[in-house]
Specification:
heterotrimer, A alpha/beta (about 220), B alpha/beta (about 400), C mainly alpha (about 80), A: alpha/beta, Peroxisomal Thiolase, Chain A, domain 1, 7-stranded mixed β-sheet, C: about 80 residues, mainly alpha, Non-ribosomal Peptide Synthetase Peptidyl Carrier Protein, Chain A, globular, transferase (chain B), Ketoacyl_synth_AS (chain B), Beta-ketoacyl-[acyl-carrier-protein] synthase family protein (chain B)
């Protein structure tokens, strides 16, 4: 049996760890929302400022989960922690910025490197020196079954823990739900469709057509 | 532990379909040549598929108004691989398709039209989504048991194959169509130029003078089936997939580590899983993009794994260009063809070995040696590294 | 104070998103690519090539040329002056 041992939600106006809000957006702040969290939580990783929004969100939620679960990373070998991320819009946010840059005649290399959704997992691997498996899928919507099935695959093929995330950022809408799956945990957090869906939707994901603002 | 491959389909710069690709490989004929996008003068070296969208549309008899080139290429290859397979109530069928640019070609048209204030049709953007290619192919082939789109950069195609194999091994599916597709776009050409790793001449993988990659486009799909599915389909087994692994390099967003850590791990684990010994690997279809960084890092990794007994290896990207998310699937099919036809492909345009490692790829087509097992590497940005092992036995 | 060097420091911070650094933190001789200096990486090097073209109209076609040029603000200023004369 597998268990959800920690989780974090990141949305437009709030950031929560294990269901507890730890940060609220200050509309009057001069800083973008993700930088507000970075400063408030006193992170020190200057590379953060160079990342695109997907990678920033991955950095924040995975680091917050590690803080909430400090003994976690030390339990495993560096290739035993896998990552399983998914979203709906891929890297569309950064893609648009890059298109804009090259149409203006200055294609920016630092933008281009983030025009792939899986770079967020690369950034987390670099920071933690994790050499395990990683997989990024593009799905129409959050699907608890997807994570459960694929965690089972990964955990039966050499991985001991999986850092998962529904990692959707499009326009102003942010639905990021990052969670950690391990083989041991509390029974009330057993990894089942019901439990995972319930925890995921604590974040009230946007139910609207997420890309609507690109169509009209 | 192995999975049967019973169908293959491919579209690349060297041909439409398996037979055309095989012929070009046998004749050592590259598909990379000077290319320019419609309405643009600037020429550059690229492995374009030699068929326009209208030709592909007509051949595929598709009625969709907006269909991206990525989907057209994918559909063509998927149909060939799927063959005459049909929907069957007792066979659980899935599809896993990989892409990195999705419908970017249509989005580019839209963007231009939008900026110019001329008939920009927002419906065009529905094809942008990476999943639209998968959904289109699934609908055409009536595959509904399982559908997934992977996007892990240039290892996507290999990861689709690996995930399909696992789903079969775990009894979740009876057959699965796996592969990838990517079209040439301004987006990717500009991107690789901005990273200064686009070679304006023919790419020269593993050569000391290499300056970068040439992009290509294409698609490839493989049909994987279990015993139960084969009893219904009667399909012949073309080759086996025996080993697979994925590992992170944990070094840099786009560059590979100097010590080739992720690549080494991926190759070692895939070979270990296959149960095939190092000395039995007849040929390695390398990732070999032609960039200074990849080819050196991959060479170091080859030495890490094989010591001074590195098997015959080459990069077929010197034929097709780098087809991004399709590359892993295209090269999987080249691996199957190598086993079926006892071929070891040359690495075109190679002259001088890389000083640091001294490794020399195969430069002339070899047809004399038996090819029993092939290792295929696919390494992606984000440090996402995958290796697959194919062979002629279970 | 050398205007070009001060301008370069501001451009560096903007182009490379060096949020936690101010121009005063960058010495003319700070090694840009050393971990003891600004700790820039290969993507930053490519952005510096973009910076030279965007703000100073100078084209660098081979990334290797950048190696010596981008050692420090001093070497960048020197290179820009040489190319502009």
């Amino acid at each position: 049996m597998n268990f959800i041992t920690a989780y974090g939600h990141l949305q437009e106006n709030s950031c929560a760890v294990n269901g507890e809000t730890i940060c609220r957006r200050d509309k009057n702040s001069g800083d973008p929302w993700f930088r507000q969290i970075y400063k408030e939580q006193e992170f020190v990783y200057p590379k953060f400022h160079k990342m695109d929004v997907l990678s920033q969100a991955g950095f924040l939620t995975s680091e917050l989960i590690k803080r909430a679960n400090p003994q976690f990373a030390g339990k495993y070998k560096d290739d035993e922690i896998a990552m399983l991320f998914a979203n709906r819009s891929g890297s569309a946010e950064t893609d648009q910025k890059f298109v804009h840059a090259y149409q203006n005649g200055t294609p920016s290399p630092s933008l281009f490197v983030y025009t792939l959704p899986n770079i967020v997992m690369g950034e987390i691997a670099i920071l933690n020196k994790w050499y395990g498996e990683s997989l990024f899928a593009v799905l129409p919507a959050f699907d608890a079954e997807f994570y459960i099935n694929h965690c089972n695959l990964l955990l039966s093929a050499g991985s001991e823990a999986v850092l998962c995330s529904w990692h959707e950022i499009a326009g102003n809408q942010i639905d990021v739900f990052t969670f950690l799956i391990e083989k041991e945990g509390e029974s009330r957090f057993e990894l089942t469709t019901n439990t995972l869906s319930k925890i995921a939707f604590e974040g009230n994901f946007h139910k609207t057509e997420i890309n609507a603002n690109y169509y009209y | 532990m192995s999975v049967r491959i019973t169908g293959i389909g491919i579209v690349s710069a060297i041909g439409l379909g398996v037979q055309e690709n095989l012929l070009a490989l046998k004749e050592s004929r590259t598909g990379i040549m000077p290319f320019s996008f419609p309405d643009e003068d600037k020429m550059f070296m690229a492995g374009a598929v030699k068929a326009t969208n209208p030709v592909l549309k007509k051949e595929l008899q598709t009625k969709s108004q907006y269909i991206s080139r990525t989907t057209l290429l994918g559909l063509k290859a998927a149909r060939e691989a799927y063959g005459s397979a049909k929907h069957h109530d007792q066979i659980r069928t899935g599809i896993i398709s990989a892409t990195s640019v999705g419908g970017m070609d249509l989005s580019e048209q839209f963007y231009q039209a939008y900026l110019n204030g001329t008939d920009a049709d927002f419906a065009m953007l529905k094809a942008h989504d990476s999943g639209s290619t998968t959904e289109h192919i699934a609908a055409e082939l009536r595959i509904s048991g399982y559908m997934n789109t992977l996007s892990t950069a240039c290892s996507s195609g290999a990861n689709a194959i690996m995930l399909g194999a696992r789903l079969l091994m775990q009894g979740k599916l009876d057959r699965v169509l796996v592969g990838g597709a990517d079209a040439l776009t301004n987006f990717t050409v500009n991107g690789f130029r901005s990273l200064m790793i686009y070679d304006e001449q023919w790419c020269r993988p593993f050569d000391a003078s290499r300056e970068g990659l040439n992009l290509g486009e294409g698609a490839a799909f493989l049909l994987l089936e279990n015993e139960k599915s084969i009893r219904f389909s009667g399909n012949k087994t073309l080759a086996f997939l025996n080993g697979w692994a994925n590992a992170a390099d944990a070094y840099h967003q786009t560059a590979s580590s100097p010590e080739g850590k992720g690549a080494t791990l991926a190759m070692q684990k895939a070979i270990e899983k296959s149960g095939i010994s190092l000395s039995q690997i007849s040929y390695i279809n390398a990732h070999g993009t032609g960039t200074k960084n990849n080819d050196l890092s991959e060479s170091v990794a080859l030495i890490n794994v094989f010591g001074d007994q590195v098997p015959a290896f080459s990069s077929t990207k010197s034929f097709t260009g780098h087809t991004l998310a399709a590359a892993g699937a295209i090269e999987a099919i080249f691996s199957v063809l190598a086993i079926q036809n006892q071929l070891i492909y040359p690495n075109i345009h190679f002259r001088t070995p890389i000083m640091e490692t001294g490794l020399e790829p195969v430069t002339i087509m070899q047809t004399e040696k038996p090819v029993h097992a092939v290792l295929s590497n696919s390494f992606g940005f984000g440090g996402n590294n995958s290796s697959l092992v194919f062979s002629d036995h279970a | 104070m050398d205007d070009l060097k001060e301008e370069l420091k501001r451009q560096l911070i903007e182009q490379l998103n060096l949020e936690e650094i101010t121009p005063a933190d960058i010495d003319d001789n700070t090694l840009l690519f050393s971990d003891k200096g600004l700790g820039l990486d290969s993507i930053d090097a490519l952005e510096l090539i973009v910076l030279l073209e965007k703000y100073h109209g100078i084209q660098v076609t081979k990334p290797e040329e950048g190696k010596e040029v981008f050692r420090s603000v001093n070497s960048m200023a020197e290179y820009i002056r040489k190319r502009q004369n």
